[in-house]
Amino acid sequence: MEFNDGKAQYEWISGPGKGNGNADIPYRSRKIGENLYIVNWHETGKKDYLTIVFDFDKMIIHSSIIIGYENKPERTLKTVFSTGVIDHLKK
Predict the structure, then answer these.
(1) CA max distance for the chain
(2) Per-residue pLDDT, 52
(3) Residue 20 backbone zone (phi > 0: left; psi -120 to 50: alpha; other: beta)
(4) What is the H or E stretch that residue 33 is in?
């Protein structure tokens, strides 16, 4: 995951979504504590909405994602609430 010039990009590097990703996504962010940030964005093309909390002291993320909110047969509605590990960090 990268954040540059007001745009986010990501790519899944493991699991069933490996190789999938997106780029040039406008995002919003706010510092909510020391080395703690909340970020969200709306992937209009995919009909997904994400909110992620980055904890750089503990090197973990917490995410809440609405996937396929139009609930069409080719992309049915799912919600995700999960935690992940930040493998490395470049500031």
Answers:
(1) 42
(2) 97
(3) beta
(4) strand 21-33
Amino acid at 38: I
> Percent of the chain at pLDDT above 70?
100
Phi, psi of 68 (to 5 degrees): 60, 50
User: By C-alpha distance, which of 43, 5, 52, 6 is closest to 21?
Assistant: 43
* pLDDT score of 90 more than 90: no
Structure tokens at 40: 């969200």
Phi-psi region of 57 (alpha: psi -120 to 50; beta: other; left: phi over 0): alpha
Q: Which range marks the domain in which residue 56 is found? A: 27-85
What pLDDT, on the 0 to 100 scale, is given for residue 41? 96
The pTM is what? 0.86
Q: What is the domain count for the chain?
A: 1
Q: Is 74 within the bounds of a domain?
A: yes
